[in-house]
Amino acid sequence: MTEELAFRGFEYAPAPESRSIVRLEDAYGLFVGGRWREPAETYTTISPASEEPLAQVGQAGPEDVGAAVAAAREAFAGQWSALRPAERAKYLYRIARLLQERAREFAVLESLNGGKPIKESRDVDLPLAAAHFFYYAGWADKLEYAFPNRRPRPIGVAGQIIPWNFPLLMLAWKIAPALAAGNTVVLKPAETTPLTALLFCDVLRQAELPRGVVNIVTGDGRTGAALVSHPDVDKIAFTGSTEVGKAIQRELAGTGKGLTLELGGKAANIVFDDAPLDQAVEGIVNGIFFNQGHVCCAGSRLLVQESIQQPLIDKLKRRLGTLRVGDPLDKNTDVGAINSAAQLQRIEELVAAGEQEGAEIYQPPCRLPEQGYWFAPTVFTNVAQSHRIAQEEIFGPVLSALTFRTPEEAVEKANNTAYGLSAGVWTEKGSRILWTAQRLRAGVVWANTFNRFDPTSPFGGYKESGFGREGGLHGLEPYLRFDGDATEWGG
Amino acid sequence: MTRVPVNKTYKLYVGGAFPRSESGRTYEAEAHNIAQASRKDLRDAVRIARGATAKWAGMTAYNRGQVLYRVAEMMEARASELAELCGGREEVERSVDRVVWYAGWTDKIAQVLGGANPVAGPYFNFTMPEPTGVVGIVAPGEPALLGLVSRLAPVLAGGNTAVVVASEAHPRAAIELAEVLATSDVPGGVVNVLTGLRDELAPHLASHLDVDALDLDRGDAELERAAADNVKRVVFARGDTQSPYEISSFLELKTVWHPMGQ
Amino acid sequence: MSSTPVLPGGFELPLEPRLPRIGAVDQVALEERAASLAKRSIKQESKRFALELAVRMMDLTTLEGSDTPGKVAALAAKAIQPDPADPSVPSCAAICVYPNLVPAAVARVRGTGVKVASVATAFPSGQSSLAVKLLDVEEAVAFGADEIDMVIDRGAFLSGRYAKVYDEIVRVKEACAAAHLKVILETGELGTYDNVRRASLLAMAAGADFIKTSTGKLPKAATLPMLLCMLEAIRDVHDETGRVVGMKPAGGIRTAKQAIQNLVIVSETLGPDWLTPDRFRLGASSLLNDVLMQIRTQKTGRYQNPEYFTRD
Fold first, then answer.
1. Distances (CA, A) of B150 to A50, B95, B153, B188
2. Per residue in A466-484, pLDDT tens?
3. Spatial distance between the Cα atoms of A13 and C106, rounded to a whole number of angstroms
4. Closest residue, chain C, to A426 (C-alpha)
5. ipTM score for this prediction
6. Which of A144, A344, B51, C179 is spaced 20 to 30 A from B102 at the CA atom?
7. Do A13 and C41 touch (CB under 8 A)?
8. What is the value of pTM for the model shown?
9. What are the Cα distances from residue C192, in Å, to C151, C170, C185, C226?
10. Which residues of B touch A89 (CB under 8 A)?
């Protein structure tokens, strides 16, 4: 039947998510002390899918940062500390409920400004962000149960610097525990993704959060540096590249300020020969193509047992053919835009290096849009441990596949990296999961799954992936001071 | 022109609905006719509470926390009505805050009570708390609202279902609370409220072999003896208190071992 | 139709101890993948094609103790011309009935292109001797059935007697002669996706032309994850041997939306080549009217009223 022969698969519909749900201002100020402060300098933030300018936002300078810290200090010394913890909790519950109510609006804005597919911002980023606020709201008046006998108290003012890959979610990961513990914050969103943080200020207004408890200062690395070096900030929380993390650690040396770092990764996704193959393929795909691979804990190295290398790689390559790369606002898009021109350049450079090093590149046929920043899903096979693409974090939709023969070899290769954020293990055998998990030097081990996050589950790295944990009871600790901290000998 | 008010009829709350007692009886309390539950009503309520355990315990802890928070939202909205049926505005506010407090425990209690146990061998060993099942609550006589809330919230936070024998002298606050529960996304059957005579109903609750735990308003040797027939966990209301250990009274601890090897 | 069934790689006799070691499927991951595929949104034009394809793929079914020639005649008429108000709507693929009703069915569809499928082998339980089951098949074929939908012996499968299950399918396939054979696994009784995968591989090894989820006598059998699980087994056999085996979900598909989700999963898992009644069928009864309603909605732009569609 000619109709059938002509039919080459369903054509998927464009997204009904209209942009009109988001009301974008032409320009945003800085949110300091509960008010909008006029920035001296501004820059344009764009949509990476189309390079369309979206709004002017502030480039906060040292005076702006100083004003924000002062507002945070004032709120901490005054109103915020005076509140009973149960009442503080209620503000956090309000924020959680408001994020749930306005979830669609935030999801659309997140995809527009950052480039990630709407189905991810809608189904992952927003629900998790609301859940983080809900979870930590519950701890605010229960700290003595989390840290018995230690008399937990807030530390004061926290400076928080977040990345562009999960802008609103990272904001939630930072602000929720900090506030639950009784602190006030100054938060700097990433340079390329300020908009959901700025919209969040409207949620703060609706929640009637006391002024100065949360301050948002937008800007590039200079703003971050000003925040890190400000003397009246008690603690810095940073999520971003290992390189910048090290610079911050050096900067804070000798100052006595608290620091937590959540840095890069080069996670190994280990597939044993008895793994359920089709589901392992889903896990691999999710591991490296979720959020275009802009994920610190991405499974960017596939370690496949040599005996099943061929069937697994064949299935993987076939599966790549069903990935849809395109408009982030399209509900059917699986892989969105690369966040910025700079990031795209980094990816291209490392991919070129991979080809030069002798690895074999595979990319499914993929029509990429003309405007915007795009990179096709990519798999390198015949990768060796000594290749750059097996060692350096690419932070893009690029997978490097290596093989191993025995469980010991898998663990050795998985651990043979300066990073230690996460790892994946695929096998049907329970004892092997636990044996492997026990030996992996990684802060998060996913067995027969990948990229699972929950506010109750602590997240953070070993080695150069950083220190400190976010999520769970442990996520409160960096934001508290305790009895018994820094006592003298004999005291 | 005088307007004649429409008076409320006070019925039981069972399976998410408001039936009258199968016995057709009422008794007088707070100058109103209150449904007087029979042992058959209690029998039905326990059966329904048992049927509701799978759904309530099967929800994620996060979802249960959200439902309890919604209960607080609905209580806050009805604060003035509730205030008239109990000690007043302050008792209502404390009750709402107590529900919010327990709502925040659903997804944290496991981290405080459970965890990995470092056994001496190549085994992964971890302890997880689980709900005990159906809890029979003999509510404190008073305070009319805070007393019941203080017992019910930890039971629910732990993932259990409940059959409540409400305060005999002050039952209307319990029924108003039931109306709140009915509008708070609490699945039908998770909470069942029986108004009536304590001394008529409590012995049947205490001796029912399909009730897992008994929460008593005070020490009562006869009820405690009856509870022994199926080794019920017997818990005593500890007055105006809130603690995660009120939740753990209604949790079972399960410990799982698994070898770690290639 | 392949005359010599080829064993998929990994099978080695003896069958009994080997089969449980084959074919692990992770439940959580499978269900998530199915749920994620269910969120695909297809274009209006594709939707119309999909709806008409769903009609052409339908095995319109009646399997009741109370079935009569009159009932079957009405069903056949519906299968031939589903929407009298719109003759452009195509016919269904087949009607599916009990063996006693096959003659009445055959008489009604003769010359129309609609096939007659008959259940057989002591449907739905399969709890009879091989001799009885083979006689059941032979009679249905003699009555004129084009297709036979058999049930596997779940009792044998669940007690580990896989060789018996396998042999029965081989013998039934022989008894089918020219008729095509669908093998019903009754996935709702098999317990785990691992078992569904094993039963699928076993049935394909024994010569099934189609594998089918259910008898329709258990509630909600043809779920999307179940479909995906069986399609993955079909894909593996096709990859290893080139053999084409079709798939038929049956039981619990009631809405056009579900039907389209099924088709999307087939398309993304096996490719557009599988989107033909020769390789995919939908076993349903109440589904047809919902699909017809959606077709009319697509054509007229107005939400429809079920009263305007015939009930046969």
1. 56, 8, 6, 21
2. 999 999 999 999 999 998 7
3. 41
4. C26
5. 0.90
6. B51
7. yes
8. 0.92
9. 18, 24, 12, 10
10. 100, 104
Residue C248 pairs in a beta bridge with: C212
Tell me which residue in A145, A430, A456 faces B107 most closely, judged by beta carbons. Answer: A456
Provide, for chain C, the percentages of residues in helix, strand and coil under a 3-state DSSP scheme, each rounded to the nearest 5.
50, 10, 40
Q: C-contacting residues of A 262-321, CB under 8 Å? A: 274-276, 278-279, 282-283, 314
Domain that holds residue C138: 23-301
pLDDT at residue A4 in the model = 41
- At the topology level of CATH, where does A30-263+466-490 sit? Aldehyde Dehydrogenase; Chain A, domain 1 (3.40.605)
Out of A10, A16, A314, name the one closest to residue C42 (CB). A10
Q: Which residues have a Cβ under 8 Å from the Cβ of C180 and sit 6 or more positions away?
A: C1, C146, C147, C148, C209, C210
pLDDT tens over chain C, length 312 residues: 333 455 566 555 556 666 776 778 999 999 999 999 999 988 777 888 999 999 999 999 999 999 999 999 999 999 999 999 999 999 999 999 999 999 999 999 999 999 999 999 999 999 999 999 999 999 999 999 999 999 999 999 999 899 999 999 999 999 999 999 999 999 999 999 999 999 999 999 999 999 999 999 988 689 999 999 999 999 999 998 999 999 999 988 999 999 999 999 999 999 999 999 999 999 988 999 999 999 999 999 999 998 889 887
- On chain A, the residues whose CB falls within 8 A of the CB of C267 are 9-10
Q: Is B235 a member of any domain?
A: yes
Give the dihedral sign, CA C59/C62/C63/C69: negative
Q: Output the CA angle A73-A78-A84, nearest 5 degrees.
A: 120
Q: Distance (Å) from the C-alpha of residue B140 to the closest C-alpha of chain A?
A: 25
Cα R_g (chain B), whole angstroms: 19
pLDDT in tens, A399-410: 999 999 999 999
Contact flag for A and C (3+ C-beta pairs < 8 Å): yes
Coil, strand, or helix at residue B82? helix
CA angle C91, C95, C101 (to 5 degrees): 140
Q: How many CB atoms lie within 10 A of CB B31?
A: 6
Domain(s) of CATH 3.40.605.10: residues in chain A? 30-263+466-490
Query: Out of B104, B112, B262, whose CB is closest to A137?
Result: B104
Active-site annotation of C, residues? 149, 212, 248
Average pLDDT over chain B reads 96
Binary contact (B104, A89; C-beta < 8 A): yes
Q: How far is A349 from chain C (nearest CA, A)?
A: 32
Q: What is the SS3 string spanning B83-105?
A: HHHCCCHHHHHHHHHHHHHHHCC
Q: Exposed e or buried b for every residue in B5-14, given b needs 16+ CB within 10 A? A: eeeeebbbbb
**What residues in A contact C263, CB-CB < 8 Å?**
10
Has residue B31 been placed in a domain?
Answer: yes
Q: How far apart are CA C21 and CA C10, in angstroms?
A: 10
Cβ–Cβ contact C41 with A under 8 A: yes
Number of independent structural domains in chain C: 1
Residue B207 to residues B42, B201, B228, B249, Cα–Cα distance (Å): 12, 10, 8, 19
d(CA C103, CA C140): 9
At residue A319, what is the residue type?
R
What is the least distance, in Å, from the CA of A429 to any CA of chain B? 9
**Residue reference for tokens 């009405």:** C74
Q: Which of these, C155, C145, C144, C140, lies nearest to C186 by C-alpha position? A: C155
Protein fold of A268-454: Aldehyde Dehydrogenase; Chain A, domain 2 (3.40.309)
Residue A52 token pair: 């369309």
| Nearest neighbour of A274 by CB, restricted to C24, C25, C276 | C24
DSSP H or E stretch at residue C116 = strand C115-120
Q: What residue has token string 């100065």? A: A212
